[in-house]
Design goal:
The protein is an alpha/beta fold. Helices cover 32% and strands 26% of the residues. Strands 16-15-14-13-7-12-11-9-17 form a nine-stranded mixed beta sheet. Helix 1 (19-27) packs across helix 9. Bound molecules: nicotinamide-adenine-dinucleotide.
Length: 365
């Protein structure tokens, strides 16, 4: 790193859509300096430069030029999914730590190449799992870690939208996104489930993936796509080690209550069930804990207190772990675990049968 103990870490952001939230997170930090912004779209690049009040000489339309010239310590990769691997590997080889947007990659092979590049270059590779940094998720993690659910045996993890196919960018194109709703939304719901359970290994995966609306130009946010060749509704049944069954549903579009956009996790155990219900990104009244008290069914409604959350909290945590040299909070190995399951859902859907992982857990490390 370029810093001794006091110099701020030099940070660059590649891709300034959600990269805007990364830049905001870094801009709030005194421990880092926003030292480069990159986007191939010059109009967007100029808009962000104005917003963050940065000089023209730290603006780049080519990330390889940025990596050569900007002398960076950390790079956020916020590009379309299929560009995560090449950009992250280039940044790692240039000696930078990388915070990569989700999904880590569009395939297990790409994710493994990225992790290999991080290890060979002695740099960190982390995934932007911002939803872990919600106060209600933190509360669930604590309830589970305290053993209050007893033995967990069943998890339902959803992110489902009535109308929500992204009409901007390249989300609907297989070539650039590697998949649709499953990679975009399913990856978050799956990560929350795996994170809360402590990343048990997946043993078998059975999935289905379909396109009902996108190819017809229906249920799209914004402009209708000229081409749409990814899934807009997918689901998977995943058998996890320890006897837990996980059902994952991800949809950009389906017939449900108008404008519904719902993240829901239901984790069932022998002593209690905890439910996270987040309609339309709300932060209020999202938790229920069902258990038994003195022989009677009881419903607990926790009132959690919120502080910093989302990308802001994620970025602060990543910077803290880098400076303190403590384990990365959203390490890429966890990103790989998710990608491997999502890839298996697509494989299972295409083959019409279950995918069985045998003796593969050690290949993840
Ligand atoms: N963590 C989250 O909650 C969250 C939210 C939204 C998006 N994402 C992820 O972030 C990534 C980007 O999504 P988005 O919504 O910002 O998309 P977007 O289309 O709004 O932005 C992508 C940006 O990348 C730029 N770009 C494309 N190719 C480039 C290249 N070769 N060099 C430089 N710039 C290039 C585009 O011009 C565009 O401005 C995706 O992987 C998506 O899954 C994560």
């Amino acid at each position: 790193m370029s810093n001794g103990t006091t110099e701020p870490l030099r940070v660059g952001v590649i891709g300034l859509g959600i990269g805007n939230a990364h830049a905001e997170g870094y801009a709030r930090e005194t421990r880092v300096k926003l030292a480069a912004l990159c986007d191939s779209n010059e109009v967007r690049l100029k808009e962000r430069a104005l917003k963050f009040n940065v000089a023209d000489d730290i603006l780049f339309t080519d990330y390889r030029a940025m990596l050569k010239q900007a002398g960076l310590d950390i790079v956020s990769v916020c590009l379309p999914n299929a560009l995560h691997a090449p950009a992250a590997i280039a940044a790692l080889e240039a000696g930078c730590h990388v915070l990569c947007e989700k999904p880590l990659a569009t395939s297990t092979a790409e994710a493994q190449d990225m992790i290999r590049a991080a290890r060979m270059n002695g740099r960190r590779l982390m995934v932007a799992y911002n939803h872990r940094y919600r106060a209600d998720v933190a509360w669930m993690k604590r309830v589970i870690n305290e053993g209050r659910l007893g033995t967990i045996y069943r998890v339902d993890a959803w992110w489902r939208r009535e109308t929500g196919i992204p009409g901007w960018g390249v989300f609907g194109l297989q070539e650039y996104s590697g998949g649709g709703a499953l990679l975009d939304l399913g990856v978050h719901a799956l990560d929350l489930a795996l994170y809360l359970l402590g990343f048990p290994a997946a043993l078998t995966v059975s999935g289905s993936a379909r396109t009902s609306f996108g190819a017809r130009g229906q249920k799209v946010w914004g402009a209708k796509p000229e081409k749409f060749d990814v899934d807009d509704f997918s689901e998977g049944d995943i058998r996890l080690e320890g006897g837990v069954s996980l059902h994952l549903v991800a949809s950009w579009a389906e017939h449900r209550p108008p404008n519904d956009d719902l993240i829901r996790l239901e984790i069932q155990g022998t002593d209690g069930t905890v439910v996270l219900n987040i309609p339309n990104y709300t932060k209020t009244d999202t938790l229920r804990f069902y258990t038994e008290v003195a022989g009677a069914p009881a419903t607990i409604t926790p009132a959690v207190r919120w502080a910093s959350s989302g990308h802001e909290a994620l970025i602060a945590d990543c910077v803290t772990s880098l400076l303190a040299n403590t384990p990365a909070p959203t390490d890429a190995v966890q990103g790989l675990a998710g990608v491997r399951i999502l890839e298996a859902i697509y494989r299972s859907a295409a083959a019409g049968r279950e995918v069985v992982f045998e003796h593969e857990a050690d290949q993840l490390a």
